[in-house]
Structures are given as C-alpha cells and as structure tokens.
Amino acid sequence: MQALTKQQGGPGNNSETTLFERAQAGCRQSLNLLMTRHEGLIHAVIHKQYLYGLPYEEALQAGRSALWRAIMGYESERGTTFSTYAWVIIMRAVWAEVKRVQKEKDWVVLEERWADEGQEPGRAVETEALSRLLMEMVGQLPVRQQGIVYARYGWGGEDPATFREIGAGLGVSKQRAHQLHQEAILRMRQPALSYGLRSLFGQHSVNGYETTAAETALWLQRRGGRLP
Prior knowledge:
The chain is mainly α. It has eleven helices and no strands. The longest helix is centred in the middle third of the chain and has 36 residues.
C-alpha cells in the first residue's frame, strides 16, 4: 500500500476522521499512528484503576488491545469524542484483567484452606462467588468510590485504612471520607448492582428492595436531590 501523503490523510493531515476511516479500511499506517497518538489514554485509565496485583505490563497490553478495538469500532458521526468512547472500552478491558487475576488468587487461597482445614468444596465455591460478585459491584462504582472501598477494607493488599487516612489521601476531611464511603455502600445496594449478590443469598425480597429505596430517598432528601 502506498505511503500516505498529507493530502491523502496521512500523518501530516490533522483530520482524525480520515485516519479512522483509513484504519478501519485496513491501512496499517493510519492504525499505527492512531495507536501511538492515543497511547496516553491507556496509561491514564490504568492509573485510575486499582490493579489488585495485576502487573502494569499486563494491564497495558489489555489496554492496547482495547484501544485497537475502539479505533476499529469508532464512528465519529455519532457525536461522541474518541477519548470518551475509548475510555469506557479500555477501562472495561483492564478491569476484566483485574477480575481474572483476583479470581485466580482467590482460588489459590481457597485451595490452601482446603489443604489446611479440610474446608467443604461447596462452601469454598460460595466464598469464591461472593468475592467475584463483590469485585464486580465495586467495579461499577465511580473511580474515587472504588478507591475508598478498596482502602477501607484492605482489598489492595494493604491493611484496612481509617477514614482519617482515606481522607488524607483524598485531600478531604475524615467526615467527608466517611460520607463518600456511605455513598459507595448505598450505590452498591441498588438493585442494578446488587442483583447477583442478592441472588447468591436468596434475598430478592420486596422488603429488602423497599428498605433500599427508602434509604436512597432519605439520602436524596439530605443531599438536595443529588444521586450518590
């Protein structure tokens, strides 16, 4: 394939629309240019994720694969900027890798417990399922709330943090850190996020959902109608 010139929409052309069209049509030069141009987006996403033991290079590889998919699937006419479109795809890909690593670690721990304690396999599977569901729920929280939950319960490999320590890390007061934690827990209890966990424990009760709805309504009232 002939090298792209400035007039043909090559590297000298500022129109990314042309680059996307050519990349999606099979032009490797345009694809490589876009991959290089948006590499920083991958690092930005990774730095906002809690990798939970996932090596940075593995997260980077997952992010690059996601960036490639984003480039090949982007449609500028939809009105969404590429960075916004790609951010979600990259974030989901990296988070999928985090969950994979977490799942593998959980099974190692469970196998060790089976050997040391004779733990029942059925109970172990339930424990693993609980861990997986909690990770999925936390993964749907806003990034800052994810960090608060991880820090509060020591899910990042560190000792559980106090609200004073969390607040210091965020540059907010102890009281504000506690408030953000409450927001995260309330969000996690919403039916859309807690469905899997409620299914695991058979708690799809009308009373349970009504209680959550009432707590949410009270929170909204206190916060002037702003969703947590």
